[in-house]
Design goal:
The chain is of the alpha/beta class. It has one domain (5-11, 34-83, 111-304): UDP-N-acetylmuramoyl-L-alanine:D-glutamate ligase (3-Layer(aba) Sandwich). The chain is built from 11 helices and 13 strands. It has helices spanning 33-43, 58-69, 118-123, 131-135, 138-153, 171-181, 192-199, 204-214, 252-267, 270-284, 297-304, and strands at 5-8, 12-20, 23-31, 48-55, 73-80, 86-93, 96-102, 126-130, 157-161, 187-188, 218-222, 228-231, 236-239. Strands 5-4-1-8-9-10-11-12-13 form a 9-stranded mixed β-sheet, with helices on both faces. A 4-stranded mixed β-sheet has the order 3-2-6-7. α9 (252-267) packs antiparallel against α10. It is globular, with a radius of gyration of 18 Å. The relative contact order is 0.15.
Protein backbone atom coordinates (compact mmCIF):
# COMPACT_ATOMS: atom_id res chain seq x y z
CA UNK A 1 0.00 0.00 0.00
CA UNK A 2 1.44 3.38 -1.00
CA UNK A 3 1.22 5.88 1.86
CA UNK A 4 2.38 9.44 2.30
CA UNK A 5 4.04 8.67 5.64
CA UNK A 6 4.89 5.59 7.69
CA UNK A 7 5.56 6.21 11.37
CA UNK A 8 7.55 3.82 13.53
CA UNK A 9 7.44 3.81 17.32
CA UNK A 10 5.82 3.16 20.66
CA UNK A 11 2.11 3.71 21.35
CA UNK A 12 0.94 4.30 24.91
CA UNK A 13 -2.24 4.71 26.92
CA UNK A 14 -2.41 8.11 28.59
CA UNK A 15 -3.91 9.17 31.93
CA UNK A 16 -3.89 12.95 32.04
CA UNK A 17 -4.52 14.89 35.24
CA UNK A 18 -7.32 17.45 35.01
CA UNK A 19 -8.91 19.87 37.45
CA UNK A 20 -12.48 18.86 38.23
CA UNK A 21 -14.22 21.00 40.87
CA UNK A 22 -10.85 21.58 42.52
CA UNK A 23 -10.26 17.83 42.77
CA UNK A 24 -7.52 15.98 40.95
CA UNK A 25 -8.80 13.43 38.45
CA UNK A 26 -7.38 11.58 35.48
CA UNK A 27 -8.86 11.46 32.01
CA UNK A 28 -7.86 8.48 29.89
CA UNK A 29 -6.53 9.01 26.41
CA UNK A 30 -3.75 7.96 24.08
CA UNK A 31 -0.13 8.87 23.55
CA UNK A 32 3.23 7.81 22.22
CA UNK A 33 5.03 10.43 20.18
CA UNK A 34 5.03 8.83 16.74
CA UNK A 35 1.49 7.53 17.16
CA UNK A 36 0.43 11.10 17.96
CA UNK A 37 2.27 12.29 14.87
CA UNK A 38 0.51 9.69 12.72
CA UNK A 39 -2.87 10.91 13.95
CA UNK A 40 -1.84 14.51 13.31
CA UNK A 41 -0.95 13.56 9.74
CA UNK A 42 -4.30 11.81 9.24
CA UNK A 43 -6.21 14.82 10.59
CA UNK A 44 -4.46 17.02 8.05
CA UNK A 45 -5.85 14.83 5.29
CA UNK A 46 -2.78 12.79 4.32
CA UNK A 47 -2.41 9.01 4.25
CA UNK A 48 -0.36 7.47 7.05
CA UNK A 49 0.46 4.12 8.58
CA UNK A 50 2.00 2.96 11.84
CA UNK A 51 4.58 0.26 12.60
CA UNK A 52 4.66 -1.11 16.15
CA UNK A 53 3.53 -3.76 18.61
CA UNK A 54 0.80 -3.64 21.26
CA UNK A 55 -0.09 -6.01 24.05
CA UNK A 56 -2.84 -8.60 23.93
CA UNK A 57 -4.79 -6.54 26.46
CA UNK A 58 -7.58 -3.99 26.71
CA UNK A 59 -5.21 -1.07 26.16
CA UNK A 60 -3.86 -2.66 22.99
CA UNK A 61 -7.40 -3.17 21.68
CA UNK A 62 -8.23 0.46 22.44
CA UNK A 63 -5.23 1.64 20.45
CA UNK A 64 -6.25 -0.48 17.46
CA UNK A 65 -9.72 1.02 17.66
CA UNK A 66 -8.21 4.51 17.86
CA UNK A 67 -6.16 4.07 14.69
CA UNK A 68 -9.17 2.66 12.90
CA UNK A 69 -11.25 5.72 13.85
CA UNK A 70 -8.48 8.07 12.84
CA UNK A 71 -7.89 6.34 9.47
CA UNK A 72 -4.31 5.40 10.38
CA UNK A 73 -3.30 2.18 8.63
CA UNK A 74 -2.35 -0.27 11.40
CA UNK A 75 -1.79 -3.37 9.28
CA UNK A 76 1.84 -3.36 10.44
CA UNK A 77 0.99 -3.26 14.15
CA UNK A 78 1.28 -6.74 15.61
CA UNK A 79 -0.11 -8.04 18.90
CA UNK A 80 2.41 -9.47 21.35
CA UNK A 81 0.99 -12.47 23.21
CA UNK A 82 2.66 -11.69 26.55
CA UNK A 83 4.20 -8.20 26.79
CA UNK A 84 1.82 -5.42 27.90
CA UNK A 85 0.91 -2.16 26.25
CA UNK A 86 2.74 0.71 27.92
CA UNK A 87 0.98 3.45 29.88
CA UNK A 88 1.89 6.87 31.27
CA UNK A 89 0.49 9.54 33.57
CA UNK A 90 0.61 13.32 33.04
CA UNK A 91 0.53 15.67 36.03
CA UNK A 92 0.46 19.46 35.97
CA UNK A 93 1.82 22.18 38.26
CA UNK A 94 3.27 25.68 38.09
CA UNK A 95 6.36 24.33 36.33
CA UNK A 96 4.37 22.73 33.51
CA UNK A 97 3.49 19.12 32.73
CA UNK A 98 5.32 16.06 34.03
CA UNK A 99 5.32 12.44 32.88
CA UNK A 100 5.42 9.15 34.79
CA UNK A 101 5.84 6.07 32.57
CA UNK A 102 5.12 2.37 33.02
CA UNK A 103 6.59 1.00 29.81
CA UNK A 104 9.41 -1.34 30.88
CA UNK A 105 9.41 -4.46 28.66
CA UNK A 106 6.27 -3.27 26.88
CA UNK A 107 5.16 -4.84 23.61
CA UNK A 108 6.73 -2.01 21.61
CA UNK A 109 10.08 -2.75 23.26
CA UNK A 110 9.96 -6.17 21.60
CA UNK A 111 10.13 -4.82 18.04
CA UNK A 112 12.85 -6.30 15.81
CA UNK A 113 14.08 -5.51 12.28
CA UNK A 114 11.84 -8.33 11.04
CA UNK A 115 8.85 -6.11 11.89
CA UNK A 116 9.85 -3.55 9.24
CA UNK A 117 7.49 -3.94 6.23
CA UNK A 118 9.96 -3.88 3.34
CA UNK A 119 7.48 -3.61 0.48
CA UNK A 120 5.23 -0.95 1.98
CA UNK A 121 8.11 1.12 3.36
CA UNK A 122 9.81 1.15 -0.03
CA UNK A 123 6.66 2.70 -1.54
CA UNK A 124 5.98 5.39 1.05
CA UNK A 125 7.10 9.00 0.67
CA UNK A 126 8.43 9.61 4.20
CA UNK A 127 9.50 7.46 7.15
CA UNK A 128 9.04 9.25 10.48
CA UNK A 129 10.51 8.13 13.80
CA UNK A 130 12.07 9.53 16.95
CA UNK A 131 14.88 8.90 19.40
CA UNK A 132 12.37 7.46 21.87
CA UNK A 133 12.03 4.45 19.58
CA UNK A 134 15.80 4.01 19.80
CA UNK A 135 15.86 4.46 23.57
CA UNK A 136 13.21 2.01 24.78
CA UNK A 137 15.23 -1.14 23.99
CA UNK A 138 18.21 -2.45 22.07
CA UNK A 139 16.05 -4.37 19.61
CA UNK A 140 13.83 -1.34 19.02
CA UNK A 141 16.95 0.72 18.28
CA UNK A 142 18.08 -1.90 15.78
CA UNK A 143 14.62 -1.80 14.22
CA UNK A 144 14.82 1.97 13.84
CA UNK A 145 18.16 1.83 12.05
CA UNK A 146 16.99 -1.05 9.85
CA UNK A 147 13.96 1.01 8.78
CA UNK A 148 16.10 4.09 8.14
CA UNK A 149 18.60 2.22 5.97
CA UNK A 150 15.82 0.51 4.01
CA UNK A 151 14.09 3.85 3.46
CA UNK A 152 17.25 5.50 2.19
CA UNK A 153 18.01 2.53 -0.08
CA UNK A 154 14.61 3.04 -1.72
CA UNK A 155 14.72 6.83 -1.97
CA UNK A 156 12.27 7.36 0.90
CA UNK A 157 12.84 10.54 2.89
CA UNK A 158 13.55 10.17 6.60
CA UNK A 159 12.03 12.48 9.22
CA UNK A 160 13.47 12.35 12.74
CA UNK A 161 12.52 13.95 16.05
CA UNK A 162 15.28 13.98 18.69
CA UNK A 163 12.66 13.67 21.50
CA UNK A 164 15.10 13.31 24.40
CA UNK A 165 13.98 11.23 27.39
CA UNK A 166 16.83 10.94 29.90
CA UNK A 167 14.84 8.50 32.04
CA UNK A 168 15.34 6.00 29.23
CA UNK A 169 19.07 6.41 28.62
CA UNK A 170 22.07 8.53 29.56
CA UNK A 171 22.82 11.82 27.83
CA UNK A 172 26.04 10.37 26.39
CA UNK A 173 24.20 7.37 24.94
CA UNK A 174 21.46 9.58 23.54
CA UNK A 175 23.96 11.97 21.97
CA UNK A 176 25.87 9.12 20.38
CA UNK A 177 22.82 7.47 18.80
CA UNK A 178 21.19 10.74 17.77
CA UNK A 179 24.37 12.08 16.19
CA UNK A 180 24.70 8.85 14.20
CA UNK A 181 21.09 9.19 13.04
CA UNK A 182 21.08 12.86 12.05
CA UNK A 183 23.23 12.44 8.89
CA UNK A 184 20.71 9.87 7.64
CA UNK A 185 17.78 12.32 7.81
CA UNK A 186 16.14 14.55 5.28
CA UNK A 187 14.23 16.42 8.00
CA UNK A 188 15.36 16.93 11.59
CA UNK A 189 12.73 18.10 14.10
CA UNK A 190 14.44 18.85 17.44
CA UNK A 191 13.09 21.00 20.25
CA UNK A 192 15.24 23.82 21.61
CA UNK A 193 15.32 22.16 25.04
CA UNK A 194 16.50 18.83 23.60
CA UNK A 195 19.05 20.43 21.32
CA UNK A 196 20.54 22.53 24.10
CA UNK A 197 21.05 19.41 26.21
CA UNK A 198 22.48 17.43 23.31
CA UNK A 199 24.79 20.08 21.88
CA UNK A 200 25.57 22.40 24.79
CA UNK A 201 24.55 25.29 22.54
CA UNK A 202 21.97 27.93 23.44
CA UNK A 203 21.68 30.13 20.35
CA UNK A 204 19.05 28.70 17.94
CA UNK A 205 21.02 29.56 14.80
CA UNK A 206 24.15 27.91 16.19
CA UNK A 207 22.06 24.80 16.89
CA UNK A 208 20.65 24.62 13.36
CA UNK A 209 24.15 25.18 11.93
CA UNK A 210 25.49 22.38 14.13
CA UNK A 211 22.96 19.87 12.84
CA UNK A 212 23.31 20.99 9.22
CA UNK A 213 27.08 20.51 9.48
CA UNK A 214 26.44 17.09 11.01
CA UNK A 215 24.56 16.13 7.86
CA UNK A 216 20.86 16.98 8.22
CA UNK A 217 19.35 18.43 5.04
CA UNK A 218 16.68 20.49 6.76
CA UNK A 219 16.48 21.51 10.44
CA UNK A 220 13.19 22.64 11.96
CA UNK A 221 13.93 23.81 15.50
CA UNK A 222 10.81 23.90 17.68
CA UNK A 223 10.93 26.60 20.37
CA UNK A 224 7.53 26.27 22.06
CA UNK A 225 5.82 29.60 22.63
CA UNK A 226 8.78 31.35 20.95
CA UNK A 227 7.91 29.77 17.62
CA UNK A 228 10.16 27.85 15.25
CA UNK A 229 13.41 28.37 13.34
CA UNK A 230 13.72 26.69 9.94
CA UNK A 231 17.03 26.33 8.12
CA UNK A 232 17.94 24.46 4.94
CA UNK A 233 21.57 25.57 4.78
CA UNK A 234 20.76 28.45 2.47
CA UNK A 235 17.92 30.30 4.14
CA UNK A 236 16.88 30.76 7.78
CA UNK A 237 13.38 31.78 8.83
CA UNK A 238 12.14 32.41 12.35
CA UNK A 239 8.38 32.10 12.73
CA UNK A 240 7.06 33.69 15.95
CA UNK A 241 4.80 31.76 18.29
CA UNK A 242 1.06 32.38 18.60
CA UNK A 243 -0.57 33.80 21.70
CA UNK A 244 -3.18 31.31 22.91
CA UNK A 245 -4.68 30.31 26.24
CA UNK A 246 -2.50 27.24 26.76
CA UNK A 247 -3.58 24.65 29.34
CA UNK A 248 -1.67 21.50 28.35
CA UNK A 249 1.37 21.22 26.07
CA UNK A 250 1.32 17.40 26.05
CA UNK A 251 1.95 16.21 22.50
CA UNK A 252 2.31 19.70 21.01
CA UNK A 253 5.63 18.77 19.41
CA UNK A 254 4.10 15.62 17.94
CA UNK A 255 1.22 17.64 16.53
CA UNK A 256 3.78 19.97 15.01
CA UNK A 257 5.66 17.08 13.39
CA UNK A 258 2.54 15.66 11.77
CA UNK A 259 1.27 19.02 10.59
CA UNK A 260 4.69 19.93 9.22
CA UNK A 261 5.15 16.70 7.28
CA UNK A 262 1.63 16.91 5.87
CA UNK A 263 1.99 20.47 4.63
CA UNK A 264 5.54 19.90 3.42
CA UNK A 265 4.40 16.97 1.27
CA UNK A 266 1.40 18.95 0.08
CA UNK A 267 3.24 22.15 -0.87
CA UNK A 268 6.94 21.22 -1.12
CA UNK A 269 7.77 24.35 0.89
CA UNK A 270 9.37 23.75 4.32
CA UNK A 271 8.94 27.36 5.41
CA UNK A 272 5.20 27.43 4.66
CA UNK A 273 4.90 24.00 6.28
CA UNK A 274 6.58 25.25 9.44
CA UNK A 275 4.21 28.23 9.61
CA UNK A 276 1.25 25.88 9.31
CA UNK A 277 2.64 23.45 11.90
CA UNK A 278 3.44 26.30 14.28
CA UNK A 279 -0.25 27.20 14.31
CA UNK A 280 -1.36 23.59 14.70
CA UNK A 281 0.92 23.10 17.70
CA UNK A 282 -0.33 26.30 19.34
CA UNK A 283 -3.93 25.18 18.92
CA UNK A 284 -3.13 21.80 20.46
CA UNK A 285 -2.07 23.43 23.74
CA UNK A 286 -5.58 24.81 24.29
CA UNK A 287 -7.01 21.39 25.17
CA UNK A 288 -6.01 18.46 27.40
CA UNK A 289 -4.46 15.25 26.14
CA UNK A 290 -1.96 14.29 23.48
CA UNK A 291 -4.57 13.10 20.95
CA UNK A 292 -7.79 14.90 21.85
CA UNK A 293 -5.98 18.20 21.39
CA UNK A 294 -4.73 17.61 17.84
CA UNK A 295 -6.55 19.97 15.44
CA UNK A 296 -7.69 18.99 11.95
CA UNK A 297 -6.89 20.89 8.77
CA UNK A 298 -10.11 22.94 8.82
CA UNK A 299 -9.35 24.15 12.36
CA UNK A 300 -5.78 25.14 11.50
CA UNK A 301 -6.93 26.89 8.33
CA UNK A 302 -9.55 28.85 10.27
CA UNK A 303 -6.94 29.85 12.85
CA UNK A 304 -4.61 31.09 10.12
CA UNK A 305 -7.43 32.69 8.12
CA UNK A 306 -7.36 30.71 4.89
CA UNK A 307 -9.75 28.23 3.28
CA UNK A 308 -8.98 24.63 2.32
Amino acid sequence: MKLDVLCLGEPLLEFNQIQDNKKKAYSSGFGGDTSNTAISIARQGMSVGFISKVGKDQFGRELLELWKRETVDYSHVSIHPEAPTGIYFVTHDADGHHFTYYRSDSAACQMTPLDVPKDDLSQTRVLHLSAITQAISGSSCETAFAAIHLARKNGVKVSYDTNLRLKLWSLDSARDVINRTVPLCEVLLPSLEDATSLTGLIDPEEITDYYLELGAKLVVLKQGSLGVLVSDGKDNLHIPGHIVKAIDATGAGDTFDGAFLSEWLRRDDPFAAAEYANAAAALSTTNYGAVDSIPNRDEVAAFLGFSV
